[in-house]
Amino acid sequence: MTAMIIDGKAHAAALRARVADGVAGFVAAAGRKPGLAVVLVGEDPASAVYVRTKTRMTAEAGMAGFEHRLPADTTSDDLLALVDRLNADDTVDGILVQLPLPAHIDERRVLTRIDPDKDVDGFHPVNVGRLATGLHGFVPCTPLGCLMLLRATLGELSGLEAVVVGRSNIVGKPMAQLLLQQSCTVTVAHSRTRDVAAHVRRADIVVAAVGIPHFIKGDWIKPGASVIDVGINRIAKEDGGAGLVGDVDFAGAAAVAGAITPVPGGVGPMTIACLMRNTLVAACRRVCAAEPEL
Ligand SMILES: NC(=O)C1=CN([C@@H]2O[C@H](COP(=O)(O)OP(=O)(O)OC[C@H]3O[C@@H](n4cnc5c(N)ncnc54)[C@H](OP(=O)(O)O)[C@@H]3O)[C@@H](O)[C@H]2O)C=CC1
Ligand SMILES: Nc1nc(=O)c2c([nH]1)NC[C@@H]1CN(c3ccc(C(=O)N[C@@H](CCC(=O)O)C(=O)O)cc3)C=[N+]21
């Protein structure tokens, strides 16, 4: 193995510590804690685990967490009414509606109902537009975490060839916007791309957000490239247990890459740390129109 392993867990812990410092300053100035409301509809076990982790980390950062668990048969109108209440609640600085939502709920309608200035997920079209035009808004947590890991690993990204595999609104598209903002030359590959391997072979930076275990092969990776594996795939292990693997063949890629994120312990922890960061930023903007240094 030649690649440096990018320790997402350690970077995330360091970011959460900086956020906790900022939170202490906010509490001293504003006389209250930054507040994050997390809404979970239904009983999806993976979502329940993420929501519990988010709530625990919120408390550890010194912030107030408000967990709203609604039954799977909640109507769109009931969910929209809850979003309206959270928008109007001055103790709530950030709102996150856990995805995916049950199929009968109109996801777009719910996400666009969230006050853009409380949209710590960065999914509201206003924040998508702000990111695309270079205005201050909220950047989705997963691509923001990926960018932080890349900056910590490579420093300046200007001029590098970046290939993002995946074009979802949550990961691929905002990731491409962020890399473009850093003056990378960005290619976005997806399921209709004719030869994904050929694009990946040119890349100094590979971000894999496909949702297919070990989709990116080791012999696609350019020697020395930086590989960010966003994939979280639950697979059955030989011993009968459940294992978590990424979208990259880790062993194969680590033999040629310059640096690579593991799964678990890579992008996932950074996503949650960035949510804490965005919540503190939301609180600072709402209360004192200031940007914390993070
Ligand atoms: N670590 C973290 O914090 C997070 C991890 N994830 C994980 O990241 C992965 C991606 O998530 P998400 O973006 O939401 O997933 P989506 O399913 O929304 O998007 C997957 C993307 O991969 C593309 N794709 C599918 N098959 C191929 C193929 N054969 N060749 C090239 N591209 C392909 C799709 O293309 P097309 O658009 O053409 O269909 C699509 O753009 C998942 O494993 C998810 O669990 C997600 C969010 C946060
Ligand atoms: N509105 C919304 N915002 C999200 O940001 C959001 C969402 N919905 N729905 C689901 C996806 C997925 N996601 C992850 C967060 C943390 C880990 C994480 O911490 N993973 C650990 C492992 C955790 C485990 O063992 O399951 C790791 O990679 O080390 C993973 C995935 C956020 N998402």
Task: Output the number of helix runs.
Answer: 10
CATH class of the largest domain: Alpha Beta
In one word, what is the shape? globular
Fraction of residues in helices? 40-55%
Question: Which strand-content bin applies to the residues?
Answer: 15-25%
The total count of strands amounts to 11
CATH fold call of the largest domain: Rossmann fold
Largest sheet: 6 strands, parallel
- CATH superfamily label of the largest domain: NAD(P)-binding Rossmann-like Domain
Runs with pLDDT <50, length 5+? Answer: none
Radius of gyration: 19 Å
Distance between the first and last residues' Cα: 33 Å
Element string (H = helix, E = strand)? EHEHEHEHHHEHEHEEEEHEH
- Hetero compounds: NADPH dihydro-nicotinamide-adenine-dinucleotide phosphate, 5,10-Methenyltetrahydrofolate
Pathway: One-carbon metabolism; tetrahydrofolate interconversion
Family: Belongs to the tetrahydrofolate dehydrogenase/cyclohydrolase family.
Catalytic activity: (6R)-5,10-methylene-5,6,7,8-tetrahydrofolate + NADP(+) = (6R)-5,10-methenyltetrahydrofolate + NADPH; (6R)-5,10-methenyltetrahydrofolate + H2O = (6R)-10-formyltetrahydrofolate + H(+)
Domain Tetrahydrofolate dehydrogenase/cyclohydrolase NAD(P)-binding: 140-285
What can you tell me about this protein's structure?
NADP(+) binds at residues 166-168, 232. This protein is an alpha/beta fold. It folds into two domains: 31-115, Rossmann fold, CATH 3.40.50.10860; 141-268, 3-Layer(aba) Sandwich (Rossmann fold). Helices cover 43% and strands 16% of the residues. The protein contains ten helices and eleven strands. It has helices at residues 8-30, 45-60, 76-88, 107-113, 125-133, 141-154, 172-181, 196-201, 250-254, 267-288, and strands at 4-5, 35-41, 64-70, 94-97, 161-165, 185-189, 205-208, 226-229, 233-236, 242-245, 259-260. Bound molecules: NADPH dihydro-nicotinamide-adenine-dinucleotide phosphate and 5,10-Methenyltetrahydrofolate. The site of 5,10-Methenyltetrahydrofolate (GUE) has 18 residues, from helix 2, strand 4, helix 6 and helix 10.
